[in-house]
Write a structure and sequence with these properties.
Nucleoside Triphosphate Pyrophosphohydrolase, 2 domains, about 180 residues, alpha+beta, 9 strands, nine-stranded mixed sheet
Amino acid sequence: MVTPILKKSKKYWNFRYTFSVLSFSCFFNFLVFKLLTTSSYYGCWNFKKDGMKVTKKWGVIPYRQNSRGKVEFLIVSTAGGKWVFPKGNLIKRLGPTRTAQLEAYEEAGIAGDISPSPYTIKVGTTKFFFYPLQVSKVFKDWPESNVRARKWVRPKEAANYLRRRPFKQMLRTATMELV
């Protein structure tokens, strides 16, 4: 007796195709996850091990000494009416310090000497890198002048304008080191 050759049903091939696509998809996702979690200092997005996104922002803490020798900080307004230090996403081809300087120019219309070592703080899932910037030039017109206002304030006043506790703590630390 000859046993008939069993034909593989359409359902079998669909299952096999779906399984191979899913396994490739899982492998691809694993590779992307691995690349993003092992990425270096540069990059705007990273992933934590538990899958939560971490956003990175670079900015400056602009300061100057007034005529009495006291330190003042520059803060800028946001569209929502809050006051913050100039900051933004990393531009990879510029690097962290030049990105921070560019954000200072775009958002506050300032230029100056930047410190090579940043203050790092974390608020929720966002990690901030702020470089102290001693302001030497203030421009009358700047790219976001029609959207933002800027204000020079003393350290205690700046703490009242800044809403989040990590920013206030960073400002306190910067004030002690800059004075």
